[in-house]
């Protein structure tokens, strides 16, 4: 992520659930994996950490070691900047991983590589091409000069386009240049191997064009990191304020509680937050990272979910407690906002974010879907808000 140098650590109560490949690798490295209770009340195996470096988290995502990340027991207003920073880091890492996978797949499916594989059946270039331990680093070091030449050829015309873009400010231009370099830094070794194999041949331009087009398309999508992070924080803040208002009425025994006064006055607010924390009624943030496998519907797909342990659908006719289903009722997010608005919370800004995000995703070529679930899993009532993005 371009901003990951701002802080050495992200300090939050973090739960990591691993992919099969990630779990296998970490177990072989003697990392202890524990049973974790997740926000949806299910059990998964992973690790808990109270802080993590951005670079380490990004590497774990790029290697496809992590399937899910959760933060629970935090209050949205107090942890706003940390949650936004974490969310942007995760989404940027997913964008880098998606670029690496898409560009590799297109290179391996290209005509030059197909012809090579047909003519050299004993030296096929594909996803199964393996490097022995330690060979990747030595290979990259040996080819450093030629790799630098290829990078320059890819980036120079894109940098020129950025420099002449009148809609970008100087700091935005610098950020775009940095992000393009980070995209290339996520490139898989087998993709570099293919580029180097054809670098001096007439076929190189075909592969070069593939990578450049992937860079252009990926760069168009970078704003999704900030947009979706702000959206989920706006939603979390609104729901969190409703929970604070409800808890304050119980705590202070008053008929009407001024939510703005509680939010602004730490002396009133802190006891309410602590009461919610003791009851395990603070929100849980979850990022489901999708995957790079061949499973249908997983490539380039990720979800951000918000788990609320209190229902905000007082008008719901069905009894969730009686249904005992994990998916008792679904709502569109706009309907969810309307239900929240009926409770007296001012959500005009949230609706603006939702409309903006929907339009922005369409312009970036990202499929965006929202859904709100009422669930009753293992006796615990929840409202689960899901934002799904398909890159």
What's the topology here?
Blueprint: E1 14-18, H1 20-28, E2 34-37, E3 43-49, H2 54-62, E4 66-72, H3 80-108, H4 111-119, H5 135-142, H6 144-163, H7 170-185, H8 189-197, H9 204-219, H10 224-252, H11 259-264, H12 266-278, E5 284-288, E6 301-308, H13 320-323, E7 329-331, H14 333-342, H15 348-364, E8 367-377, E9 380-390
Antiparallel strand pairs: 1-3, 1-4, 2-3, 4-5, 5-6, 6-9, 7-8, 8-9
Helix pairs in contact: 2-3, 3-8, 3-9, 3-10, 6-7, 6-9, 10-12, 10-15
Task: Describe the overall structure.
This protein has 391 residues and is α+β, with helices and mostly antiparallel strands. It is 52% helix and 16% strand. The chain has helices spanning 20-28, 54-62, 80-108, 111-119, 135-142, 144-163, 170-185, 189-197, 204-219, 224-252, 259-264, 266-278, 320-323, 333-342, 348-364, and strands at residues 14-18, 34-37, 43-49, 66-72, 284-288, 301-308, 329-331, 367-377, 380-390. The protein has a nine-stranded antiparallel sheet. Strand 8 and strand 9 (380-390) form a beta hairpin. The longest helix has 29 residues, at 80-108. It is elongated.
